[in-house]
């Protein structure tokens, strides 16, 4: 199952996803063949309340974010 299909399932169908992102069902269905446009990725992420992430939808545009390395703090008693 693709990320788009998961997003469609999470919100209850193509019609509901289209309504949530202010588009049409036909446009959403076309994304299955053509891919999701960059300008719609964040809309879909919001519509799924983050359950389908931007990285899952378009990993080419949104690589996995890595947590910053922790800053090494001096040990107690040293300066």
Keywords:
mainly alpha, 434 Repressor (Amino-terminal Domain)
Report on the architecture of this protein.
The protein has 79 residues and is mostly helical. It has a domain at 3-57: Orthogonal Bundle (434 Repressor (Amino-terminal Domain)). Helix content is 47%, strand content 0%. Helix 2 packs across helix 3. It starts with a helix and ends in a 22-residue tail after the last helix. 23% of the residues are buried. The model has no long low-confidence stretch (mean pLDDT 90).
How far from one another are the termini?
55 Å
Give unreliable regions as ranges: none
Order of helices and strands: HHHHH
Binned strand content:
under 5%
Silhouette: elongated
CATH superfamily of the domain at 3-57: lambda repressor-like DNA-binding domains
Number of strand segments: 0
Sequence-ordered SSE layout with sheet pairings:
Blueprint: H1 3-11, H2 14-20, H3 25-34, H4 41-47, H5 54-57
